[in-house]
């Protein structure tokens, strides 16, 4: 990870006039399988500007992917491929060791599957975000990060465009994406605990997930407007981000996402897609 202890204003540069901050609001959608549905996709799509759609490896199936793409296209929400380790039983949150070539192919495969349904809905996949264990692994693991970046590059080449990679600032994933010539989009989390180095508190630890609405709203505004957050040890750290995530599988996620968007607007923060 890059140093995260220097505060940075994400809305201004030296000598330039202050401008209103703008941030994207994303959530994980399509996280169901068959008759089982974890996320309230329709309600979330009324609040978010970018939808991280499960591509079948940690959740999601063809019918779900098609439905979410159609809903997102109707509402002008950008469609992103949320790629994962092949782990339906563990919801993509179990540590796995996948050979680099195999992982790159699986990432490209997932993006390509979602692209079919996005195109059928009159839209397209506009970015890629890893999920769960893959997201966390590629923060520090250069080899796995390079494999993900290669998969994104392959899928983008087939589609004729370079797909942006949404991820944690300073991560190995973003280093690998930049090396592969892919745009990088920094992400912050409204409802996750942070460690002092800017990484996320593991879900196995206390206070990894924040569910108290007022706390999540205040954190969202601070991240968007000031580019900073309070880490688990009480230290203030810089988190420069262009997109803010509210997890779709947290309790009452749709209502929370709606409130976050409303409160961001009330605080003078513009909310619009980065893609």
TrEMBL record:
Keywords: ATP-binding, Hydrolase, Nucleotide-binding
The UniProt record lists the keyword Hydrolase: yes
EC primary class: hydrolase
Residue ranges, annotated region (Disordered): 1-21
InterPro entries: Glyco_hydro/deAcase_b/a-brl, LamB/YcsF/PxpA-like
Chemical reaction(s) catalysed: 5-oxo-L-proline + ATP + 2 H2O = L-glutamate + ADP + phosphate + H(+)
Name of one Pfam family that matches: LamB_YcsF
Entry keyword annotation includes Nucleotide-binding: yes
Origin: domain of life: Bacteria
Enzyme Commission number, as recorded: 3.5.2.9
Family (UniProt): Belongs to the LamB/PxpA family.
HAMAP family: PxpA
Protein purpose: Catalyzes the cleavage of 5-oxoproline to form L-glutamate coupled to the hydrolysis of ATP to ADP and inorganic phosphate.
Quaternary state and interactors: Forms a complex composed of PxpA, PxpB and PxpC.
Full protein name: 5-oxoprolinase subunit A
Source species of the chain: Streptomyces albiaxialis
